[in-house]
C-alpha cells in the first residue's frame, strides 16, 4: 500500500517523516489535527503501520515513541468525539446485555442506504459505495481478531467461531475479504489493498479507524466485542438488499457472492455474538457491560453518519467520494 496523500498540516508532516528512516531526527507533529479530514487520515496512517504497512516505509516506525504520542493525542480527540455522538446509554446487569444489544439495534433509526441501493442506485452510485466499503472490507475481520488473545472462556470460543467463518474456514477463495475483492473486480474497480484510500472522505475513514482503535487497546476490548455484535446483528437484511441491487443492475453470482454469503452466515453470527460472545464476556467481567454497549452504539452511530453523508450527496446530485469512482477504476 502506498502512503496516502496528506489532508492537512499534521498528516502532511507525518507523511514526510515516514519517508525517512525510523528514529529520524526530524520531529513528528506534536499537535492534534484540527479538522476531520486531517485527523482521520492521520489516525489511519498510524493504525495501518500495525497491519500491512506502506511501501518504502521503515517498519520500525510501528513502535516509534514519537509516533505513538501523536497517535495517542489524535485518539483522545477521536474517542471523545465518538462518545459525544453516542451520548448516554442504559445501565443494565450483565445477564441483560444480549437483550439490550437487540434493543439498541431495533431502535436504530438511521437512513436506509441499503434500501436505496436495492431499489434506486445507479451503477455509478453502487461503484461509489463499493469504493467506500473497500477501506474496511479488504481487511474484514482483522481488527476484531485483536480481541482473541485478550479473552478467555465462552467469549473467546464464540469470537473464534465467528472469525473462522470470516476467514473462510482457512480457504482463500472463501475468505470474506477475497469475496469482496471479487465484487470490486466485477464492478470494474481496482481491487488492491488500500487502492481507494485517497478517494474516501473522513466519515468513511472514521468507520475503519474506530475498529482499529478498539482493537489496539486492551482497555477497549469490551467495546470491540460490542462493535462486532452490532455489525453481525445488522448485516443480514442490508446484505440481502445489496445483492438484490446488484442483480437489478444485471450482475451475476460472481459479483453478488460477497453479499449473499453474509445473508446466511450473519443470521447465525448475530445470536453467537450477542449472547455467547458479549453475554459470556460480561458474565466474566460484569464491570465491562457499559463498554460493550458503547462499542455497539458507536458502530451504529458512525454507520448513521456514513449513510447520511452518502445519501445526502446523491440526493444533491454530487458524488459521495472525494474523487469520483471512475477516477479510481481499474
What would you say this structure looks like, in words?
This protein has 330 residues and is an all-alpha fold. It has two domains: 9-83, no CATH class; 91-328, Heme Oxygenase, Chain A. Helices cover 63% and strands 0% of the residues. The chain contains 14 helices and no strands. The two termini are 16 Å apart. The relative contact order is 0.16. Mean pLDDT is 94; it is low at 325-330. This is Iron-containing redox enzyme family protein. InterPro entries: Haem_Oase-like_multi-hlx. It comes from Virgisporangium ochraceum. Pfam families: Haem_oxygenas_2 (PF14518).
CATH architecture of the largest domain: Up-down Bundle
The rough form would be described as: globular
Mean pLDDT: 94
CATH class of the largest domain: Mainly Alpha
Main beta-sheet annotation: none
Give the distance, in angstroms, between the N- and C-terminal Cα atoms: 16 Å
Number of strands: 0
* Unreliable spans: 325-330
Task: Encode the helix/strand succession as letters.
Answer: HHHHHHHHHHHHHH
Portion of residues within helices: 55-70%
CATH homology-level superfamily of the largest domain? Heme oxygenase-like
Question: Total helix count?
Answer: 14
The number of domains is: 2
CATH fold category name of the largest domain: Heme Oxygenase, Chain A
Work out the strand percent.
under 5%
